[in-house]
């Protein structure tokens, strides 16, 4: 029973050691290696460990860089605003309008169950709906609204945004609902007592109090959209280029140093955005509440 | 509350129902089309009902199903190991947060960083590190390791939330009653956090089973399920993909239900034991 | 706790209606056969009727689960009424919105908006009405002054003590100029010292403003100290409604006598009577009822001493005697005494 005499501090350190080792060796060090490799030269499928700035000069000279970032920021803006409005509406309904705990649990489960189907399958599930011969086109044709199939429903920016919204709305709704559930019902009643309409309660009381939830949800959306290459490739039919797609393409072509340089830029941007957001909320305090 | 319903309730109910249709619509297409007749394609209409696409899956070397069998087994094996490690390491780091200690913030924020760094960078970074060290990726170390960087932060958060809300006086009471640290853990803490421990196992399994961005470059030879399916996406021309979707959903469904039932019966047994003691 | 002498609280209520002479609005609140049941289940409140006269301090008193809080929430409009009518100032508000009733509720947890300063909390209803910032802050400051919180106006709720939060909540409720202020166990979260202080404060503000306060409590001491009208409730019904003195001296039934405390409920020749403990003695009373008993416990309460005794059948009684009389000849536990009272101190209870 050595732990009986062990100081609590050492016990905590020992308990945290395996976790910290994994986070350091498999997250921190690899991220540092990416930075290092971005300054190295490369040949065919090999990294040449010599100092080389070419990856960076290529990156900043290429007009492709600006284009890919323009694309991903446009997508991020759309996905964020749609998931925010939709996620807020759903959480607001579940927390403040559904009164029975049983129904709330059932509705929450209903929102989670579709995510048990694997991601690639859920992407391909849009084909029978949105394809040229898909249900939507068939229905529009049947109603006489169109005389030839709409082609921009699938493999387009529209389908990319649609599937993002489909996959990420719950990531926004979850933290918001969590923040909302922490608002005591008597605070809402007090606001109603003071003459506030439902809309005024939302504006003056609920929105200021769920800011932490919105921040956390926003972080999820940012990292998902900025870091994703699979969904964009699949749903745009390999037609759209975002920074993550560009990096994946270079990795697949074994051009590691330029991919590393691009990764560093994207990482700095993502971490910068998240760091900025975290200034507004103390995550550790939020979780312990 | 017990006050009358307002118009906004009905409007919001409608929005929520529409959202559920948005979530389930495509999924039901998958389930339905997996029973497409042998002559049918990847779109409606259904040309009869059949289980021919499921049969294709189970007869080796079917039409464009790739190596789905082995990928599934690889994914299960990987998921089980990752889940177990996630549970154990998560439990340990969670317990470390029962007290404040120097470096605690570093541990906490390293998990947050691992959560918010997009997966491909972690995967790419690990693969570069192996490359620099001159090692070849293998599923049993780099594959598992890469996935742990994704599952462990969630496990830590689960423990952080559960233990953070647990009254510290339980442990103090146990100490007052003469329990040593192992007895305290075994008789007081573990029973209270058992649902969270099961939760960590499940979170570990599902995150591993779904994860490809980190493991993809580090798994070595042989695809896992999500990698295999992503590979098949572009090439899919028949409803066989939908059959895979239906089956894997059924599998996940079973897993979740079994876990829920297990934790429910565990809680029930404890309840019974308690009432037996009181009787 | 000094009040600014130039400060007249009544000026804060300019819209309060002038006193009405005709009998129609003698009452601030009327409940007519009001019931509440949940999902067709048992009645939480069972057909209660009650009239609260103008400008009175009314306490709803009872054990937890007696329906007092439900009654208050129905008055506030936070709970729908299953059956019956609620009238405020002679206007039927049974189905009215909370803010349209002329009531304002002070919550047990205070329910201050955590993201707003004390000043902005108090000014909230004015902001909702669209009052300009400078004007609403000035007005809110007046009300914070009324509750002696003007010096902490810019603090956030988390930076205020329980008692201070309560004062802000009070200001926030009063600024809507309610005809009736509803208070849900307002003192229960405070420590005993602060509780007595706030109690005095509530009574002062009620008197100064001249509006009705309806105050839910489970403390008989609080109810007796504050009320013009005490309403004792049990199992969703009103057991007794009357002045504090009436309720204490003339409890209508055994429940009220026991709940209000300080009474012995005794069977005398097949009927129930109550006898105030302070009228009982532990010596022989000539011409009274005398019961041989044994002292089981003695509680020193300062000016009074409470003595518990048990007779040969095991029935328990208690007497409260002044400390001077007690210490003149102090009994000890286990001593044989005579428990006695006079017939004129018996109060006959309803069956």
UniProtKB/TrEMBL annotation, chain B:
Key word Iron present: no
**Keyword Transport listed:** yes
* Localization, UniProt: Cell membrane
Membrane spanning residue stretches: 9-33, 76-94, 106-127, 139-164, 185-205, 240-264
Q: Which organism is it from?
A: Devosia soli
This protein's source sits in the domain of life called Bacteria
Keywords for this protein? Cell membrane, Membrane, Transmembrane, Transmembrane helix, Transport
UniProt cross-references to PANTHER family, sorted A to Z: PUTRESCINE TRANSPORT SYSTEM PERMEASE PROTEIN POTI (PTHR43848)
Q: Which InterPro entries match?
A: Bact_Polyamine_Transport, MetI-like, MetI-like_sf
Membrane-topology annotation of the record? Multi-pass membrane protein
The protein's name in its UniProt record: ABC transporter permease
In this chain the ABC transmembrane type-1 domain maps to 72-262
């Amino acid at each position: 029973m050595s732990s009986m005499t062990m100081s609590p501090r050492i016990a905590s350190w020992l308990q945290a050691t395996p976790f910290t080792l994994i986070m350091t060796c498999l997250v921190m060090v690899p991220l540092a290696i990416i930075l290092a490799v971005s300054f190295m030269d490369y040949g065919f499928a090999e990294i040449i460990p010599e100092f080389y700035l070419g990856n960076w000069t290529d990156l900043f000279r290429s007009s492709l860089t600006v284009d890919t970032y323009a694309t991903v920021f446009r997508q991020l803006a759309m996905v964020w605003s749609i998931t925010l409005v939709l996620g807020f509406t759903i959480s607001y309904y579940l927390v403040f309008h559904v009164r029975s705990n049983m129904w709330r649990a059932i509705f929450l489960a209903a929102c989670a169950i579709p995510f048990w189907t694997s991601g690639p399958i859920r992407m391909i599930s849009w084909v029978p709906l949105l394809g040229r011969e898909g249900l939507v086109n068939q229905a529009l044709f049947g109603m006489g609204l169109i005389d030839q199939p709409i082609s921009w429903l699938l493999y387009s920016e529209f389908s990319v945004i649609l599937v993002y919204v489909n996959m990420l709305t719950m990531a926004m709704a979850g933290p918001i609902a969590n923040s909302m559930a922490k608002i005591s019902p008597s605070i809402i009643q007090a606001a109603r007592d003071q003459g506030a309409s439902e809309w005024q309660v939302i504006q003056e009381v609920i929105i200021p109090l769920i800011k932490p939830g919105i921040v956390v949800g926003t972080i999820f959306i940012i990292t998902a959209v900025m870091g994703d290459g699979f969904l964009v490739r699949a749903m745009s039919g390999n037609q759209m280029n975002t920074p993550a797609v560009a990096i994946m393409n270079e990795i697949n072509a074994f051009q590691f140093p330029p991919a590393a340089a691009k990764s560093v830029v994207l990482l700095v941007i993502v971490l910068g955005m998240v760091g900025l957001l975290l200034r507004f909320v103390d995550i550790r305090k939020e979780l312990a509440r | 509350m017990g006050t009358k319903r307002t118009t906004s309730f009905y409007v919001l109910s409608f929005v929520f129902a529409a959202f559920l249709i948005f979530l389930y619509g495509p999924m039901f297409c998958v389930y339905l089309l997996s029973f497409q007749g042998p002559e049918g394609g990847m779109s409606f209409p259904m040309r009869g009902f059949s289980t021919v696409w499921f049969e294709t899956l189970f007869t080796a070397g079917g039409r464009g199903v790739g190596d789905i069998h082995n990928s599934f087994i690889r994914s299960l094996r990987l998921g089980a190991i990752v889940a177990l490690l996630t549970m154990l390491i998560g439990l340990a780091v969670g317990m470390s947060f029962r007290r404040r200690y120097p470096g605690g913030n570093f541990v906490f924020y390293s998990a947050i960083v691992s959560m918010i760094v997009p997966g491909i960078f972690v995967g790419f970074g690990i693969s570069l590190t192996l490359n620099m060290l001159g090692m070849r990726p293998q599923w049993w170390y780099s594959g598992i390791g890469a996935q742990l960087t994704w599952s462990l932060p969630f496990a830590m958060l689960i423990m952080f939330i559960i233990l953070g809300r647990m009254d510290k006086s339980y442990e103090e009471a146990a100490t007052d009653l003469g329990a040593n640290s192992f007895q305290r853990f075994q008789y007081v803490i573990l029973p209270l956090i058992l649902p969270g421990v099961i939760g960590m196992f499940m979170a570990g399994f599902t995150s591993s089973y779904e994860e490809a961005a980190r493991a993809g470059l580090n798994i070595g030879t042989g695809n896992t399920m999500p990698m295999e399916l992503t590979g098949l996406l572009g090439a899919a021309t028949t409803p066989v993909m939908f059959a895979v979707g239906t089956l894997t959903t059924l599998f996940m469904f079973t897993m979740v239900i079994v876990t829920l039932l297990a934790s429910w019966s565990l809680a029930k047994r404890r309840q019974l034991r308690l009432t037996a003691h009181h009787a | 706790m000094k009040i600014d002498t130039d400060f007249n609280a009544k000026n804060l209520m300019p819209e309060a209606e002038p006193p009405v002479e005709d009998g129609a609005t003698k009452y601030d609140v009327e409940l007519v056969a009001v019931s509440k049941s949940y999902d067709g289940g048992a009645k939480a409140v069972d057909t209660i009727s009650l009239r609260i006269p103008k400008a009175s301090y009314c306490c709803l008193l009872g054990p937890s689960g007696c329906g007092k809080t439900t009654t208050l929430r129905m008055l506030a409009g936070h709970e729908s009424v299953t059956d019956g009518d609620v009238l405020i100032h002679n206007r039927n508000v049974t189905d009215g919105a909370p803010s349209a009733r002329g009531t304002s509720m002070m919550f047990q947890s205070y329910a201050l908006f955590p993201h707003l300063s004390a000043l902005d909390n108090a000014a909230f209803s004015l902001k909702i009405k669209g009052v300009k910032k400078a004007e609403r802050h000035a007005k809110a400051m007046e009300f914070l002054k009324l509750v002696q919180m003007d010096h902490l106006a810019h603090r956030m709720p988390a930076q205020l003590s329980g008692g201070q939060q309560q004062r802000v909540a009070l200001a926030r409720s009063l600024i809507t100029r309610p005809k009736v202020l509803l208070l849900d166990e307002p003192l229960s979260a405070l420590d005993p010292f602060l509780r007595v202080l706030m109690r005095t404060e509530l009574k002062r503000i009620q008197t100064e403003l001249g509006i009705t306060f309806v105050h839910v409590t489970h403390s008989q001491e609080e109810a007796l100290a504050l009320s013009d009208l005490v309403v004792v409730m049990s199992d969703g019904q009103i057991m007794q409604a009357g002045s504090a003195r009436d309720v204490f001296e003339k409890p209508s039934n055994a429940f009220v006598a026991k709940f209000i405390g300080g009474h012995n409920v005794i069977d005398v020749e097949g009927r129930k009577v109550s006898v105030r403990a302070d009228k009982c003695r532990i010596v022989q009373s000539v011409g009274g009822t005398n019961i041989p008993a044994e002292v089981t416990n003695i509680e020193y309460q300062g000016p009074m001493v409470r003595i518990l005794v048990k007779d040969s059948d095991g029935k328990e009684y208690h007497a409260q005697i002044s400390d001077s009389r007690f210490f003149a000849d102090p009994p000890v536990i286990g001593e044989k005494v005579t428990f006695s009272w006079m017939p004129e101190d018996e109060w006959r209870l309803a069956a």
